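Re-running the complex after MR caught last week's input typo. The corrected sequence lines follow. Everything else is unchanged.
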Amino acid sequence: MKKNISFPIIIVITVLVSSLFFSCRKIDTIKLVGDWKVVSLSSSYTFNNEKFETTFDGTTKTSRHLVSDTMVTEDAYTGAIFTDYHNDGTYVYSETFKHNVTGITETLGIDGHWYFTGPNAEADWAVTDLLAMQASKSTFNTDMGNPHTTIYQGQNTLEIYEIVSLSKTKIVLKMQKAETINFTQYVTTMDFTLEPR
Amino acid sequence: MKNAKRFLIMIVCGMLLIPVFNSCKVGDEDASFTIYSRKYRLCQDWSFSYYKHTVQHNDTIVSVEYDGSSYIHIFGTQKYISNATMTISFKKNGTYDWEEHISNDTSVYSYKETGYWYFTGGGKDSDTKFKELLALQKTSHTKTVQITGQSPVTDNYSASGNLETRVFRLIKLAIDEVKMESKVEQQYIEGTNTVLNSEITVINLKMGAQ
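Corrected-run output:
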């Protein structure tokens, strides 16, 4: 009599395949968790004929405001950006910059939770392609006045980043979005590279 | 010997399936066990059986409520009641469609929203499990208000890319019922000044679009 072993085999294969998805998240969690510094960043925000752009090389940050490609303001700062991803699902972001002309120092600190999103076939994202960051506390401070603190509780909105590359020695994240609100288009782009501190 | 082998296989399979059974109960009101995956349970055409959206700015509260047939706007002590239908469909390809149609004697309001949905959550410190959070990333909406005797007013939004995403906590995800809520409290402190904002959305869904 032939043994019917197909049912247990199917169960085992199903469990193994489903465990692979958990493994992907675990492996990428191991790579992500750590103390990182931003070594390069470029971002821009455009609408109508206005453009705000920022570049950072790991030490110097330059912010520009352009109207119709003509520079309106340019400010240079010296400082650092750090992001620490913890194994318990929390993260701490901090940046400190001193204005090169005025000498005013600005600090921004954000605490929150990070998640990988699930896959999405239509948007063409796999299980660990997107990193979601959910702020729970944000504090902005200058040495000129009162700190501004915002505390969030509950299901705050998620900032979504595309993970371009992820290894123990380098993370590259990207955010690109275009929103059209009643015929006006707002485009945001951000690319940044992190390396271990 | 043959029985012992079979017994061993069953024990191994049982042990391997323990994590699968444990993962059935994710939300507080989820069943302890179900044969349907979370994606299978979510991806259907749903009608709203209850909806409440409350926005608070310091002491000012504005809310709307829907009980499955009537849509009630509440501004302070004033109440405005309209007939309404609200539906949402989650597709297996990762998209969703949200539609509202609200009408009374003097106006008709229609709203259509599309976007991507994702499961997310998890992390020891986040007090959520993976797939307990449902993220809705809106990629378009069209709002149209038609007031009797006037031209319709339309508001359009379309977007692409890594858009900011709303997130709901799935309290119950069953094959015939979904309960989810999003509560966001924002406390802004500058020196001795504190501003309190909150936005609460409660959604209950039942099977079948109207």
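None of the earlier attempt is carried over here. Chain B touches chain A through 55 residues (CB under 8 Å). Residues 37-207 of chain B form one domain.
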